[in-house]
Design a protein that fits this description.
The complex is a heterotrimer of chains A (233), B (196) and C (499).
Chain A: H1 7-20, H2 28-47, H3 51-73, H4 79-107, H5 110-119, H6 124-154, H7 163-191, H8 210-232
Helix pairs in contact in A: 1-4, 1-8, 2-3, 2-4, 2-8, 3-4, 5-6, 6-7
Chain B: H1 8-31, H2 36-40, H3 42-60, H4 66-80, H5 88-104, H6 110-120, H7 129-144, H8 149-155, H9 163-191
Helix pairs in contact in B: 1-3, 1-4, 3-9, 4-5, 5-6, 6-9
Chain C: E1 4-15, E2 23-31, E3 35-40, H1 46-54, H2 56-59, E4 63-71, E5 74-75, H3 81-84, E6 88-91, H4 104-108, H5 110-114, H6 119-133, H7 148-160, E7 166-170, H8 178-193, E8 197-201, E9 214-219, E10 222-228, H9 229-233, H10 237-242, H11 252-258, E11 274-282, E12 306-314, E13 318-322, H12 329-336, E14 346-349, E15 352-355, H13 358-362, E16 363-366, H14 379-386, H15 392-401, H16 417-430, E17 435-439, H17 447-462, E18 466-470, H18 474-480, E19 483-488, E20 491-497
Parallel strand pairs in C: 3-8, 3-9, 6-7, 7-8, 13-18, 13-19, 16-17, 17-18
Antiparallel strand pairs in C: 1-2, 1-4, 4-5, 9-10, 11-12, 11-14, 14-15, 19-20
Helix pairs in contact in C: 7-8, 11-18, 14-16, 15-16
The chains are: A mainly alpha (233), B mainly alpha (196), C alpha/beta (499).
Chain lengths: 233, 196, 499
């Protein structure tokens, strides 16, 4: 049984996690809170059967944690270790946000997301544009892979060593395709009533369940805990 | 029909170009993993590479709001992809001001478009906000923990609260330069092909 | 209620920036419940008539227009597009560009959501449509992973969910294989049975001959001929040819050949001079290997998407590669021209062997969407880009044989579809490829253009090239292919010489 969360809860999670990653943990207690918060989206990923992603995140996160703790405890200098520690601490710092974002993006349907935004009274113009953005990411990927194929066949993958050509050969056909698709898409969308004066509705029913409230509570508590222990002690 | 209001077609155009711009940002972002200094060079790469779709986008703008909505979308995407929301006010302010500048030129004046693009590019600096905020507190923690200031400065030399002003200015300048490049490319391809 | 549902009165229309009129004094009235087929060459004005009825002209495409259009009692020029949404529905040509959502469910309910119906109403409509059109299997899928035919089915469902009185289809079968066309035929039949007014603009005519009540033929923006459904169904090949139309009646042999029901044929190859393909194995479902990619061999037979141990392709001939969508035609072509690095196949010709990356130089594929293949800002540069020695004279020679010399300074994207295709072919010739592959070059083309592509391919074959062309068009195979190679589940199941 997959755990179905309300998209609003998911957005709230990102909000909290993004706030927490801005504050560095200084005591073991805060580290514990931070790591717990990171584990929640990983567990949610597992609950939604994204095992590979969950595994990858766990490995990466724990490796980064381990390295940054180990090296930070010895007063190591030198280019390589500074570099490594720099990397790992950045990963440790921002990974929770990345994991949460990954979880949200992978498990939320665009319909749900748009419907959540409607519920939050975001204007139609913004929700429509945002839906188009989401629809266009895979389109760009598809178009780009065809263009790469064509470039391979022409033997111009590296544009004859010319950097501007490398960018131009990729970007120009992509823009032409996207503009064309956009024109046809607009025509198809307006004939199906997009842009009318009536308020759009949505079939996606959003309902906050027990799990939603629990998560919101947990994340709020974590944030409060973090702020209190870091700044008020 | 109300001609000053944005229609479905405009929203779709905004969506497409926001997606394209974000893809440019993302492609440059991947390069940033190679070395942190490359992260600092976003202010050069993104305005220039991104200028091609942006200048094409400018040719399609006729009404107020398209740039503003684009900046709101960028802020939302940045938020959802876990890049923080501290930059949101900067992104949206840059978008709205750029929109106003372009509007004052009736969306046709090239001079105003160049200026507008320069301002719009300031949104890129929002990428640095979370790093700056965390870097400063992180640095403090390190120094408190007995590390030499020199070591820490090395770690965060390129990006900190002092360099942000420089980065903002660079963004603007390369936004202006980018506008000229983008315009040239649009002329070379899209005008010649009769698309715009 | 009146008997006439669409009334077009003496409409003349010109697109903004266009040289001439797209429509020239067109008058047409369509009865409620009628199934009307619009045919005619590319640029004859079929699509513009469709756009008149759905209001895209004058509300979306700018231009100048005189005359009147009334649809279901509404004066189009005074009706906003969104008010027409529940009256007229349109299925467009390109399955890739007309969907708005990312998932199938969202797409079906897109229209009803736009017009602000209540969620309960939308859900019940969706259920009804899904039941009617048998879409259960397509629900809850990403639109990006569907085939062209499946996407087109969803597009039809999305239009039907608005319950329009009038349904327009603008060259809906352009990108479809035979099975999908059959499906499309059944959808139109169902709409006809429900009493909807259906108007189809098409180049491929044979699949609609039993459904059309009336057929209108257009030329240069005017209606030049009208047939009743029965007259139309009996039109001979010479008659359709006179109107520059694709045939209505196609040799049964080719229809059977291209539809999946064909019993398994045999592989008889009676030629001596051929290009030999060896060990073409490939799979998209490769298990990940940690250190090294494993090469595919015949031993993986069960998991392979492409399995061709050995095959000869006749030199100097045009060979059609047929088979339904998703059965491995494209994979075959992609492996052949070296786009799939993991495919280990070897091409042997004239005692030389080409493997891996060298296959790219030896073969060249002209893609279905040629827009992806054009990179530069002039036709001349485009061809020179393919040449190692940048020989301008040879470039002009090639352009001349393809009738493109006059366009040499134009931007490739400013050309028409057929011309773009020829630019891509010119690049292929310039690259010195001996084996030329074409991925569905005739989809969406009218009769004259299809014939021209056929002539071109023959010309390439006669001048020593070897041409492989994947296609779904029985009329094209009949017209201009020397041999047919049939692929099923990534295996060659038959090879025959047609003439």
């Amino acid at each position: 049984m997959a755990l179905k969360l309300d998209p609003r809860t998911k957005l709230f999670m990102i909000f909290i996690v993004s706030a927490v990653v801005m504050m560095s943990a200084t005591t073991p207690l805060l580290w514990a809170v931070r790591i717990t918060m990171t584990m929640i989206p990983i567990l949610l990923l597992i609950a939604e059967k994204h095992y590979a992603a969950a595994l990858r995140f766990i490995v990466l996160y724990s490796a980064a944690l381990l390295i940054s703790f180990k090296f930070l405890s010895e007063n190591s200098k030198g280019f390589l270790s500074a570099f490594l520690v720099g990397y790992c601490s950045i990963i440790v710092q921002f990974m929770p946000a990345v994991i949460t974002a990954w979880y949200v993006v992978r498990t939320t349907k665009i319909g749900e997301f748009v419907s959540a935004m409607q519920k939050m009274h975001v204007p139609d113009g913004i929700t429509i544009s945002l839906a188009v953005v989401m629809r266009f990411f895979p389109t760009i990927k598809e178009e780009y892979s065809s263009i790469r194929d064509a470039m391979k066949m022409r033997g111009i993958m590296f544009g004859g060593g010319n950097v501007t050509d490398v960018v131009e050969y990729r970007m120009i056909p992509l823009l032409f395709s996207c503009v064309n698709i956009g024109d046809e898409l607009s025509a198809a969308a307006v004939t199906r009533g997009l842009g009318g004066k009536v308020k759009r509705t949505s079939v996606q029913e959003l309902k906050m369940g027990g799990a939603d409230y629990m998560l919101i509570l947990m994340f709020t508590a974590a944030l409060v805990f973090f702020v209190v222990f870091k700044y008020m002690k | 029909m109300d001609n000053n209001k944005l229609g479905a077609k405009d929203f779709i155009t905004i969506g497409i170009f926001t997606a394209l711009l974000f893809v440019v940002e993302f492609a440059c972002g991947i390069l940033g993993f190679i070395h942190p200094y490359i992260v600092a060079s976003y202010v050069i790469m993104i305005p220039i590479v991104g200028s091609v779709p942006m200048m094409l986008f400018y040719t399609k703008i006729e009404k107020f709001g398209m740039l503003s909505i684009m900046s709101v979308l960028l802020a939302i995407i940045m938020f959802v992809t876990g890049m923080g929301y501290l930059g949101a006010p900067l992104i949206i302010a840059a978008g709205v001001i750029a929109d106003l500048i372009a509007k004052s030129g009736g969306y046709k004046s090239f001079k105003k478009t160049v200026l507008s693009h320069g301002v719009f590019c300031l949104w890129i600096c929002a990428n640095y906000f979370p790093v700056i905020v965390t870097a400063d507190s992180y640095r403090k923690n390190l120094v408190d923990g007995g590390y030499s200031t020199e070591y820490c400065d090395n770690l965060f030399r390129a990006i900190n609260s002092k360099t942000i002003a420089v980065l903002l200015i660079l963004c603007f300048i390369f936004g202006i330069i980018g506008a000229f490049i983008g315009k040239a490319v649009v002329k070379k391809h899209f005008e010649k092909a009769g698309i715009v | 209620m009146t008997d006439t549902i669409v009334e077009i009165k003496n409409v003349t229309h010109k697109y903004k920036g266009a040289a001439g009129n797209t429509l020239d004094g067109v008058s047409l009235s369509i009865k409620r419940g009628e199934t009307l087929l619009l045919c005619g060459a590319s640029g004859s004005g079929k699509t513009s008539v469709i756009r008149l009825i759905n209001g895209l002209i004058p509300h979306y495409y700018q231009g100048t227009m005189t005359g009147e259009v009334t649809v279901n009692g509404l004066d189009i020029s005074k009706t906003q597009l969104y008010e027409l949404a529940g009256v007229v529905g349109t299925v467009f040509q390109n399955p890739r560009s007309q969907f708005f959502s990312v998932d199938t469910d969202g797409e079906i309910v897109f229209g009803p959501e736009n017009i602000g119906l209540s969620p309960e109403e939308i859900r019940s409509r969706k259920e009804e449509i899904v039941g009617q059109m048998n879409l259960d299997k397509l629900l809850d899928r990403s639109l990006f992973e569907l085939s062209g035919g499946e996407k087109q089915r969803i597009a039809c469902a999305s239009v039907a969910a608005l319950l329009p009185e009038i349904i327009l289809l603008d060259e809906p079968s352009s990108n479809l294989d035979m099975d999908s066309m059959k499906m499309l035929h059944d959808i139109v039949r169902e709409w006809k049975r429900q009493g909807k007014t259906v108007i189809v603009s098409e180049h491929r005519l044979w699949y609609l001959k039993d459904l059309a009540d009336r057929v209108i033929c257009m030329e240069n923006g005017a209606i030049v001929r009208e047939w009743t459904g029965r007259e139309f169904a009996d039109l001979s090949g010479t008659e359709t040819k006179n109107f520059k139309l694709r045939p209505v009646n196609i040799n049964e042999h080719y229809l059977a050949l291209l539809s999946e029901k064909e019993k398994e044929g045999s592989i008889d190859q009676h030629f001596s001079d051929g290009i030999r393909l060896k060990d073409f194995y490939f799979s998209y479902h490769r298990k990940p290997y940690i250190l090294r990619k494993r090469e595919f061999t015949a031993a993986d037979v069960d998991s392979l998407s492409l399995c061709i141990p050995e095959l000869d392709i006749p030199k100097g001939k045009v060979t059609a590669v047929i088979g339904s969508n998703g059965t491995g035609k494209s994979t075959f072509l992609r492996c052949l021209c070296g786009l799939e690095n993991d495919c280990t196949g070897v091409i042997a010709s004239d005692g030389k062997e080409y493997r891996k990356k060298h296959r790219i130089g030896f073969s060249y594929m002209v893609m279905q969407d040629v827009n992806h293949q054009l990179f530069t800002d002039s036709v001349e540069k485009e061809v020179l880009l393919s040449m190692k020695d940048k020989d301008v004279n040879r470039c002009h020679e090639i352009l001349n044989t393809l009738g493109l010399l006059e366009f040499k300074d134009k931007h490739p994207m400013a050309l028409s579809g057929g011309q773009k295709q020829r630019v891509a072919i010119a690049s292929a010739i310039a690259a010195g490829a001996e084996l030329l592959l074409f991925d569905e070059p005739t989809s969406g083309l009218d009769y004259a253009h299809m014939e021209k592509v056929g002539e071109l391919l023959h010309g390439l074959a006669e001048s020593g090239g070897t041409v492989l062309v994947s296609t779904h068009d029985p009329e094209f195979v009949e017209e201009c292919c020397d041999c047919t190679l049939r692929i099923k589940n990534g295996r060659v199941v038959s090879f025959e010489e047609s003439r």
